[in-house]
Recover the amino acids of this structure.
């Protein structure tokens, strides 16, 4: 196992639910994960892809529909009233499972946010089932509109962020104690191409 500590800079940016990056230091020497085995109706998330979406996926309805078979792809907006920033939503049974965001040129997929436990069993998983303590996931407290949430790097994935929520949320944008975090659960997963 490579024990080299590398610095990776992430920006957290809130665009109506889009969480891009946070400046964090973390140990990149995570144990190698075996390739996930897809199961019917579930999305497989790796460093390289989420479902069939990867760094080369064009931000078009047809390309996204081909990458996410079984989902209805509908156009939406981060702020439906203002129609700011067009996004695509992957729906199944009338329920939004994924939100897909474009890059600045609207040519490629830049981020995917998963919110449906039917899409991946990780949604709803307790913090304590994933991390022994907050430092293990390089966790950071959300700021501003994201206050009350905790963002952690996924194990062995450099570009996947787990968003945790739970009881005892700190409104002052500070990280809850490990004891409080233990029962918090994953409410969203954010993936970005590497």
């Amino acid at each position: 196992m490579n024990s080299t500590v590398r610095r990776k800079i992430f920006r957290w940016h809130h665009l109506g639910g889009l969480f891009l990056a946070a400046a964090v230091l973390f140990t990149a020497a995570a144990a190698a994960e075996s390739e996930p085995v897809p199961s019917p109706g579930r999305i497989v998330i790796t460093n390289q892809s989420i479902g069939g979406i990867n760094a080369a996926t064009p931000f078009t309805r047809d390309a996204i529909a081909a990458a996410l078979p079984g989902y209805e792809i509908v156009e939406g907006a981060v702020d439906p009233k203002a129609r700011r920033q067009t996004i695509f939503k992957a729906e199944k049974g009338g329920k939004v499972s994924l939100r897909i965001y474009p890059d600045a040129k609207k040519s490629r997929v830049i981020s995917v946010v998963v919110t449906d436990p039917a899409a991946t069993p990780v949604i709803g998983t307790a913090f304590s089932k994933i991390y022994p303590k907050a430092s293990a996931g390089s966790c950071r407290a959300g700021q501003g509109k994201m206050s009350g949430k905790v963002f952690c790097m996924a194990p062995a994935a450099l570009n996947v962020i787990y968003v945790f929520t739970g009881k005892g949320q700190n409104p002052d944008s500070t990280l809850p104690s490990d004891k409080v975090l233990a029962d918090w659960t994953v409410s969203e997963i954010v993936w970005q191409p590497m």
Notes: DSSP finds three helices and 14 strands in the chain. Confidence is low (pLDDT under 50) at residues 1-38. The radius of gyration is 16 Å. Residues 128 and 182 are 5 Å apart (CA to CA).
